[in-house]
Amino acid sequence: MSADRAAYYRVAIRRRRHLDVAFAVVGLGCLMLGVLTLTVLFVEMAVQGLPRLGIDFLMAFPSRHPGEAGVLAAWVGSLAIMAVTALAAVPMGVAAGIYLEEYAPRNLLTTIIEINVTNLAGVPSIIYGLTALGLFVYLFGLGHSVLTAGLTLALLILPIIIVATREALRTVPDSQREAAYACGASTWQAIRDHVVPGAAPGILTGIIIGLARAIGETAPLIAIGAVTFVAFLPPSPVSPDFPFISLDWLMAPFTALPVQMFNWTVRPEEAFRANAAAAAFVLVLMTLGMNGLAIWLRYRLRRQTRW
């Protein structure tokens, strides 16, 4: 190698190292900017909301007086809505993802369905609210109820769960499927006993991402008629009579933490903004609790499914 070519390579390598360092610095700066912004917002929310947060705030109903207002109906409504959302969206989304990835033939119709599912994951949430208003409220006659709210948010996160399920299934090596087929397993047996357990951590991650998005949505709930002032709780799901289960709570009027926060932020009194900050803190804690449970379950599943 000539001296000129060696010098050229040294300069090129040095230039690429400088570019690597510059890219790392820019990436770190962007990361710190995002973290700093979230930290400032969280600290401001905590400073405004923590003095208001307490048992009385959690166990009180909304009131015209900010010092007496609470979020009991809101967080109970959020939990009820998320229960309906999870029961409706998770089985359907996982099943649809398994079908599209493992069973569906590779033809034009399947390609069109896949493209539409991917595009639906980016549709604004208000569109789902307007669709649910015409479908569930007016066409099916479900009214402005917990069931309507849960099904609306289920439609919202269904594409997210489908896409996440497919991506998780793709991470399972084909050797797992081939080994199952070589032992005489059917397609369903291979998927049930080998593919889905291996993809379970990724599927669970997608489910939690979808539920975390749903719990903070406001626009679709307002579109379907969420009540901003609810001074009562839905009926209990437990009945004293056989079969000891009541579904009356599904048709009850509802509110949720994001809706209650929105109602307080538009009030002119400054004290209501402190209530909104405290409600936001409760919503963040609920979301962190869901994510923490998901991380723990994902860790356990990964330990059980090592290839």
Structure report:
- The chain has 307 residues and is an all-alpha fold.
- The chain has two domains: 49 residues; 250 residues, MetI-like fold (Orthogonal Bundle).
- It is 73% helix and 0% strand.
- It is built from eleven helices and no strands.
- Helix 1 packs across helix 11.
- The longest helix has 47 residues.
- It is globular, with a radius of gyration of 25 Å.
- The mean pLDDT is 84.
Features:
single chain, 307 residues, mainly alpha, 11 helices, globular
Mean pLDDT: 84
Question: What's the alpha carbon Rg, rounded to whole Å?
Answer: 25 Å
Class of the largest domain, according to the CATH hierarchy?
Answer: Mainly Alpha
Q: Choose one word for the global shape.
A: globular
CATH topology of the largest domain: MetI-like fold
Order of helices and strands: HHHHHHHHHHH
Strand content: under 5%
Helix content: over 70%
Q: Given the structure, what is the number of helices? A: 11
Distance from first to last alpha carbon: 46 Å
Concise account of the structure shown:
With 307 residues, the protein is mainly alpha-helical.
Secondary structure topology:
Layout (H helix, E strand, L loop, with lengths): L2 H47 L5 H4 L13 H32 L4 H13 L4 H15 L6 H25 L3 H9 L4 H29 L3 H5 L33 H9 L4 H35 L3
Helix pairs in contact: 1-11, 3-6, 3-8, 3-10, 4-6, 5-6, 6-8, 7-8, 8-11, 10-11
